[in-house]
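README: folding subset

This subset contains proteins for which both the sequence and a predicted structure token string are available. Records are stored as plain text. Below is the entry for Beta-ketoacyl synthase (404 residues), shown exactly as it appears on disk.
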Amino acid sequence: MGRDVVVTGVGLVTPLGETADETWRELRSGVTTAGPITRFDPDGAGIRSRIACKIGGDPVATGDEWIDERTMGRYAELAVAAAAEAIEDAGFDPDDPDWRPERAATSIASAFAGLPELESAAGSRPSPRFLITALANLAAGHVSMSFDLQGPNRSPATACAAGTHAIADAVTDIRTGRADVAVAGGTDAPISPLGVGSFDAMRALSTRNDEPERASRPFDADRDGFVLAEGSGILLLEARDHAAERGARPYAAVTGTGLTGDAHHPTRPAEGGRGLRRCLERALTDAGCEPAAVDHVNAHGTSTPTGDAREADALRTLFDTVPPVTSTKGSLGHTLGGAGAIESAILARSIAEGTIPPTANYETPDPACDIPIVAETRETTLEVAVTTSAGFGGTNGALVFERV
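--- output ---
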């Protein structure tokens, strides 16, 4: 297996808050963030769903030394802001002589990348800076350049599983000795006419426009689609021995990774959730854990009728007794390529603080999702927990976290 990998830093920029502490505090309280779209006119664009989970202010306010709005798309700005927090949280200083940039990897995913920037440039002569604001790998690129990360550098684009895949790849970097530390996660800023409109055309979004705060309701019998969101989650991953040498205190260890493909359908998950079940099995095998050892599942749980039911199928067939399940998308909405990374950061804090956050808006059980959903904040010791992700194209990801 190689070296053990731990999480020593967390950074979050989400609709709940522009730091990890703000996001965690609001998430624990069960706050929801969906509201009317104001960046463009959904009615004028012919879009049925007129709500989204957006970041309230500018997460990259002027004065942030790392942000250059001339060269960064919004998705990259979110990632750089979250990465700065994760690096500081881990106690690293890229200007310190002991910082070894050639041993530091970057693995940051995005599904839509610079979609708003692409829309803005369409139909006109692009500026010389257009490509560096829109290309999918530039979130990782800008983070790497901002913090002098000279090790492996990648950007998975595996739809809504991308953030989880980016973390899994970074774990491999550290296990195999390609890096000692890794800045890993995901980011997306898809609230634009094309971003919202494309999912709306597929009937994937909630149309609970009159009560947006109740629209995202994972696993609930009255769910009618997800709420699109923007945000970024970044983990500072580190070899356990490297962290110990500098006296860092980890949130949790990442002990298992799993990746599978459904080979079934472009948008619909496989019957019985079989692809996601195999993904979880692989992650647990990688961690050397039996399903019975798992204390908690941080689910993908998007609030779509079919997706949630298939995920529930996967959990019921894997576990003899399904452990407590939560989906943070009830509060945060669906951040696409950022989702798995944001949820991984939340899971690391859940383990460190012994807290399972609630699934907001879960009120009416659905027989098709007959699993134990956590509807109120729960204080409990978590030794082993898993997080799941799934994306269009039938791609799946799972991670196993353990208490240290």
